[in-house]
Amino acid sequence: MSLSRTGDLVAAAREAGEGVGAFNVITVEHAEGIVAGAELAGAPAILQISQNAVRHHLGRVEPLAAACALIAEAARVPIALHLDHVDDLGLLHRAADAGFSSVMYDASHLEYADNLTATRSAADWAHEHGLWLEAELGEVGGKDGVHSPTARTDPGEAVAYVADTGVDALAVAVGSSHAMTTKSASLDIGLVAKLRAAVPVPLVLHGSSGVLEEDLRRAVAAGLTKINVGTQLNVAFTAAVRRSLTDETLTDPRKYLRPAREAVTETIAQIIRTLTTR
Q1: Known catalytic residue: 84?
Q2: How far is Cα 164 from Cα 158, in angstroms, rounded to an integer?
Q3: Which of 41, 87, 209, 241 has its CB 3.0 to 4.6 Å from that of 269, i.e. a possible disulfide?
């Protein structure tokens, strides 16, 4: 199957009232496990590589992106490739040639006016080069700003931001937070519904690892479409590696990376079933 486009997968999920999972890739094993999990669930998925993951790979996005594209092309379900949380314009401008169909441009750390200007410019560039662009507003309050679990996206501001920037999707603050290792986030489902009614583009949830399955189902039903997951995969991956390394004679990385990949596969299949009710 050929590599799919993020915008097409998100549009189809939104039309169906379902969610599409966007899963963080750090290693090739992550990508293989994600695709195997999507195949097991019989539903599409998005492989996303963050700017932080690119830094881990010595600043070179192309090798991991090429591996992801080849894995996606061999998949039995639609798979897209997304570049996540980018604030480096140089990296943004390499996205199209590296095989990505979409980018999340992150100017949320800037003051609102500066965020708007930077995101408008990024969206214009992305659209000229055939890329779908996701972005998010900034938020005053909480030491982590928009990524604080106490932050909330204002529907009126969201409508204006989307109109003024021309973005294709909006990441919203509704109670989740990045890097959560416990399922203790409390989503504001009522706010999700208000945002869905007001905002004309698909809504994205970051920090989904801290959300209970039941709450994810409710959030998707209320209007969230692209659901980002990273930490939950790393928890499963690392736990499997730890179990393998209790054997102190083990030296072959394949002996601990294989069960780690399988743990990712099982986790992905469960998440996708939650998002699609399949």
Answers
A1: yes
A2: 10
A3: 41
